[in-house]
């Protein structure tokens, strides 16, 4: 597992490798937070939020990365794998930022569809489990 300081250093290296133009108007920068954040639609506490893009008049535009979520989901990985996951999340949030500037919502729609697929998969798993339990119950009677 990587410490929050190590993660911050890795995140800085990743951020420095990304073209500066992609940070245009990201006046709040990138914030690494210590907590883990469960997605509000998580089923069985298995869906964590890795990062979020925020835009508001009061706080400006900024990206949150959740160190605790990374620890829970990717803490077992090698440094190279962990770094690649951080890179993907940062690029994902930067895409939200740049789409926001351009007035696009493609990635928001993609994220919504991803959550809908997750919920469908979880519902199907629950149905399959209930059907197995029902068959087992009938078999035992």
From TrEMBL:
InterPro entries: Zincin_1_sf. It comes from the Bacteria. CDD domains: MMP_TTHA0227. This is Metallopeptidase family protein. The lineage of its organism: Bacteria, Bacillati, Bacillota, Clostridia, Eubacteriales.
């Amino acid at each position: 597992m990587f410490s929050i300081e190590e993660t911050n250093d890795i995140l800085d290296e990743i951020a420095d490798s990304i073209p500066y133009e992609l940070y245009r108007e990201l006046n709040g920068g990138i914030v690494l937070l210590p907590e883990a954040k469960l997605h509000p639609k998580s089923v069985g506490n298995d869906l964590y939020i890795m990062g979020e893009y925020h835009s508001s008049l009061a706080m400006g535009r900024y990206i949150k990365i959740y160190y605790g979520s990374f620890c829970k989901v990717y803490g077992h990985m090698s440094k190279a794998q962990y770094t690649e996951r951080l890179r993907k999340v940062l690029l994902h949030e930067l895409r939200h930022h740049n789409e926001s500037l351009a007035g696009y919502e493609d990635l928001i729609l993609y994220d919504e569809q991803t959550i809908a697929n997750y919920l469908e998969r979880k519902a199907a798993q629950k149905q399959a489990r209930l059907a197995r339990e029902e068959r087992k119950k009938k078999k035992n009677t």
